[in-house]
Amino acid sequence: MNKLKILNIMSNPAEAVASEAASDGIAMQPYPVTRIRNTSGSAWTNWVELYRYRDLFQYLVRREIKVRYAQSAIGVGWAVLQPLFTMLVFTVIFGRLAKLSSDGAAYALFSFAGLVPWMFFSNAVTDGVNGLISGASMMSKVYFPRMLMPLSANAARMIDFVVASVVMSGLMLWYGVAPNWGLLALPWILAVMALCTSGVTLWLATFAIQFRDVKHALGFIVQILMYAAPVVYPASLVPDAYQRFYAINPMVGVIEGIRAGCLGTRAMPWDFLLIGTISAIALFGTGVTYFNSKQRVFADLA
């Protein structure tokens, strides 16, 4: 076999074998190729298609909840214990030792009000990223909107958020704190939280499935982001000159808004919420676009 023929086989083995068979009078049938992809040519999500797969979305949410607490003696009680124990640690370290300001509220209640939305965000992002990677076997077998996997993981964490919110209501009764009219902004606040969480999840999940280092760095990334939000300290500690820049982080408006409506630590931060809403919409919109631009190769990369 001459060198030219060897190079041809190495560069394009399928074509070389077909050519060799043809020269011997053998007719070769091409191997069937199954393409698992979105038929939509649009880079933006086909929302009608997502709605068609709503039953699968509901199934994925239920499965996520069941798997999370399978063989757990406490079950959903972890949604209570995790923020409670974290609150105790923060109260001792930041409230008693560091003596950080809590805008006039009891530091335990102040920190818990910040932990409830933050733990939803951090856990939902982590679950969404890991869920897309672990769903590789499904993606390689059948087509469905890939976005269902990270978004269903986000939605499943709402159970924890609701349970922790009930505990927070109990703490407010214990401390004799009543909510105010600012709590009427809660639907807006929750919408910003959901958009921000989904946007960050889609960005990081897309990166993680291409670069596995992101998965290993995810815990560190989320931990760093916590200190960029007013979880253990009030936003009032940030200098006035940087307040609006600080509010670009949507979770700033979410956390401060929940504290303002539930604890009355400050007037409702409408400016934070407005800036955070714009940022959250931008995060979600660009996250969806980037996710859709890469989802065609997810099955190969996962």
UniProtKB/TrEMBL annotation:
Superkingdom of origin: Bacteria
Membrane topology: Multi-pass membrane protein
Protein name, entry field: Transport permease protein
GO terms for cellular component: plasma membrane
Gene that encodes the chain: tagG_2
GO biological process: lipopolysaccharide transport
Bilayer-crossing regions: 72-94, 106-133, 154-175, 181-205, 217-236, 272-291
Ranges for domain ABC transmembrane type-2: 74-294
